[in-house]
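Write out the 3D structure for:
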Amino acid sequence: MIAMNLPPARFKAFDASGNPASLGWVYSYVAGSSTPKSLYQDAAGTPYPNPFQLDVNGEADIYFSGYYKIDVKTSALVSCPGYPIDNVVDALTIVTTGGNLIVTATGGNTAISLPDRFGYQLSVIDNGADNTGATSSSTAINSTITANTVIFFPKGTYLLDTKILMPYGGPNGNRKHLHFDNVELLAGSNNMTMLHCADCFCSISGRVRFHSNGRSGINAISFSPELGASNTTVTNQNYNRLLAHIETIGCDEGIEFMCGVPIGGTSSGCWYNVVYSYFSTSCKRAIWFRDNGSVAAENSGPNSQTIYGMIVNGSCNTGVQVDAGGGHQIHTIGMENIQIGTSPNATPVGIKINEFMANGGRNANIKVFGSHWENVTKYVEANEGTIEFFGVDNEIEASYGALVPLVDYYKSVKVQKGNVVNGVYGIVASIANIRSIWLFDQYGSSDTVVDHGLYGNSLVLRNSNLASQYASQWGPNIFGLAQGLSYADQSHLFNTPNNAYFNFGNGATDSAFTIMMLFNPSLMANTEIFSKDDVTTASPKRCYSFSLNSNGILNANLFDNSTGGYIGRTTAAGVVVANVWQLVTLTYSSSATNAGVKIYVGASQVDNADQSSGVYTAMESLSSTPGSYRISTAGTPERALRSKVAFLGVFSEEFTAAQVRRAYNLLLPYVGAGS
């Protein structure tokens, strides 16, 4: 018998999901105690700090001296599976008996043969796979998967001339796990699926890229029954987890989900699969929820799939298409540059949902949480009620595609008051710049509109009749339209007491500001939207005016009270229409120029002409009262707003066009006709 010590191999740790414990921590102690004891970086005895951090791959070179207790934790300081372990010795002990090598693992007490020892994490290279991409690895990979549970793909490129198959293993699945260490899979023939998941409870981790390699008819990943079994056996492709960073490049189909046909009254399922971190570029279609074509009465759609983090970008035709199934959730997506080709859809589209499956079942309840759209020919093609968009961070690039169809889908979002307030807090550059946020949701005997900003600047309702109006259901009604208080005649006024928060000039210089209102005007008269303007003959106190004419013209004016001069911008007639909920915005840059004033309706800038006179230096800090009217030459209120009002915000910063667009998207469920 011969005993010898081996130099330690490079250490690698994995978390509970089977992923490398990137930037994890190693703690070392005297065996059987909590007394720290150093590990070493090299054979020369250079000590590590205690604890010390693993690299981004969860690896480190570790040298021992004697016995240890070791604890390995993730970057979130959660112990990895199997840790802590005690009585770890400084090297593997290998014993030869009759020509066989028998290994006792570090910290273990049972000797196991080398073939068994290495079989616990089998690499596809061990079965002849070629990670240079020069020759096909399909046969080697599939034989490795067939014979083992955990399969490791070392870094490199693997050429496939037939698909990788996770074969069906019965109702409880094969429970295979594939780990890819920065791998590229290349298609080696036309019209093939590269990875076919025909089983349930399988998982994939690491980083893997599926590349068409210039081939046609390539499907990167398919969750579907095996051919032959699909018409004779109830198969399930459920609860699979793609925890890897997955890329699909140049494929016809990126990821496909499809159930088998019903067998004996039982559906073959493709349900509850999870995909994390998916990037698709230059693919005809990134995700396809496919109909199996069965017209049987049973519901056999691929339901309840979940996608976390998805980007579709570059020479694509379709982002996500649902031909079958419902209950899918897609969290945080980016849809960019979907403008190419006429296949699979004649018009390139970000999300397409066909309302019914072949069996008559309805595809519904698909939810998208947080999205960004840019250079997309058509954003969404779907029947109302099949899809909902959630999240105040949703951005729609209005300069591309048709924005109007998305209004109907956003109306089902049902953003409530708290979400609106939180959304506005997320739009401003600094929350200190929120002078006031007012939601017109009063009811009962209240005579104020509460300020949801930081400074408590509540609005006072100047007419007791307003207090009897019930608007407790602020938010979307069944049609997704806003509720608010009505200001129907000259006596219906609101204002907030004058204070420094609503002064944006000191006589020498101006400061930036924004005024934004969601309202439903009658256009019965010329009115103020929100102004700080007192034109009393004896002592005028003019600061700024955001007003609306009866012909739908918006005006924004800033006044130099000392000189009588003013600057501003105006719009064409008809930019505001009667009896429609609209978002209007005035922004000012502080530049003391007409160009510094901008007017928006919705997300579009609409001002088209200067409106100025005399010498203008700056606004002044005056005691006039900000509100929904101005004070006339006789010293009494006039030009009172005649409108329903749901939201009013005043901010001490100039909103950019992007900020205005984000606010519009936030309030989009409430925009439209109706009361």
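DSSP finds six helices and 52 strands in the chain.
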